[in-house]
Amino acid sequence: xxxxxxxxxxxxxxxxxxxxxxxxxxxxxxxxxxxxxxxxxxxxxxxxxxxxxxxxxxxxxxxxxxxxxxxxxxxxxxxxxxxxxxxxxxxxxxxxxxxxxxxxxxxxxxxxxxxxxxxxxxxxxxxxxxxxxxxxxxxxxxxxxxxxxxxxxxxxxxxxxxxxxxxxxxxxxxxxxxxxxxxxxxxxxxxxxxxxxxxxxxxxxxxxxxxxxxxxxxxxxxxxxxxxxxxxxxxxxxxxxxxxxxxxxxxxxxxxxxxxxxxxxxxxxxxxxxxxxxxxxxxxxxxxxxxxxxxxxxxxxxxxxxxxxxxxxxxxxxxxxxxxxxxxxxxxxxxxxxxxxxxxxxxxxxxxxxxxxxxxxxxxxxxxxxxxxxxxxxxxxxxxxxxxxxxxxxxxxxxxxxxxxxxxxxxxxxxxxxxxxxxxxxxxxxxxxxxxxxxxxxxxxxxxxxxxxxxxxxxxxxxxxxxxxxxxxxxxxxxxxxxxxxxxxxxxxxxxxxxxxxxxxxxxxxxxxxxxxxxxxxxxxxxxxxxxxxxxx
Length: 537
Prior knowledge:
alpha+beta, 4-stranded antiparallel β-sheet, 15 helices, about 45% helix, about 20% strand
C-alpha cells in the first residue's frame, strides 16, 4: 500500500489538499482504497488579457488547425478511391486498457468568487476574429463583479471502469450541476446592474432588520428602540448603495459598448483615460466634476460629424470620404456616451459615501510575479511579496507613452506600451527616520522601473524609470546606496530646437546589513551603466 498526501503550497494554508491510498497488490489495475480531495474557497479576478494570451498560445501551437484536421479526418469520405497507401496504427483493445478501481472517492464542494474585467481599448487591439469575438462578448456582458460560483461536493463508491470512462463520468456530473450557473452568470453581469449581488445585499439588510433588535433584546445589551432605528438606518444605507451601484454598472457598461461602435481609436483612448483609467471618485462632488467633463467631451464630440468627413476627404479623396462619412455619423453616439458617463460618475460618488469597506475580493497570498522570459515557475513567497509593490506604483509612464503615440500615429496606438515583467528583487533591512524598529524593505527591479519600498506595512518610498537612472554609488561605511536620476524640469523655457531641460535628483536607499546593500548595488550599477553582465548594452 502507498499513501499519497499533497498540498499545493508550503508554509501557508493549503489551497488544495489531496489524500489517497493506493493498493499495489493487483497487477494491471490501479486500485485506490480511498481518494480525498479538498479545495479551499477562493476568489478569482480575470482580465481579458489572460484570454488574449491563451488564444495567442493556441494559435502559435496550431491548435485550431489540428482540431479542423481531426474533424475532417473523422468525416466519412465523399468519394471512393480505387486504392491508396495508408499507415495503419495499432490501437489498444478495450480488454487491455488499464482498469481503475476506487472504493471511495470524495471531492469537496468548490466555491469561487469570480470577477471578470474587459477594457474597450483591448477589444479594438484584437488581432484575430476569434479574439475580437471573445473580447466583444465579455464587453457586452459589461463585466462580472463578485459572482459566487458554487458546485456541491461529489462522493462516489465502488467504481470499476477504465480511466477515460471514469473521467467522462466525473465531468458529466459537474457539467449537469453547472447548468444553472449559466443563468446565474448572465444575471450577475454589470449590464443588468449585478442583479444577483443586489438581491443578496438587500436580503442581508432585511435579515438584519429582523434579527438585530431581537438579538439586542435577548442579550440585554441596549434598548430595543435604538436597535430598530439602527437597523432601519442600515437598511436605508444598503438600499441607496445597491441602487447607485446598479445604475453605475449599467451606465458604465452601456458607455463602454457604445465607445467601441464609434470606430475612432483616438477617442477610445482619451475616453478610457478620462473615465475608466481615472481613480475612483470618493464623494459626490468629485463624481460631478468628472461627470461634467465627460458630458462636455461628448457634446463637443458632435463636431466630428463635420470634421471626420472633411479630414477623410483631404487625406484620401473620394475613397476616404465614405469612411469619413461613416465615422461622422457614428459621432452621434458620443453624446449618449457622455450622458451615460455623467450619470455613472455622479451615482458612483453617491455610492462612495454609503459604501463601507473595501472590495469583496481579498487575497490569501500576494500574486505570483510575471517573469521577463514569460515562463511559469514554482511559487516563491519572497518574490511575490516584492512583486506586490507594483500594485501601489504609478501608471503615469503608460499614460505618457500612449499620449505621445496618439499624437504621432494612430496605427501603433495600442502596441506602443511595452510590457512590464519581474527581473529581480533585493531585500534591504533599514531603520526609517523617527523609528527605532528595523523594517523589511526591498528593491524591486522590473523591465521598466526600480522601486524601493517597505513590505510590512506595504508602502512605496520611491520609484525610478530605468531610462532615467544616471549613477549609483556605495561608499564606506556602507550604510546607504546613493542613486542619481534624471528628472523633467518644468517647461518654462526651451533649450535649442526640441530640447528640454533636466535636473539630477538624489535618492538614498538606507540599510543596516552590508551584504544586502552590496548585492543591490552590483545590480543597480549595471542598470545605470546600461550594461548587462556579459558587457553588452
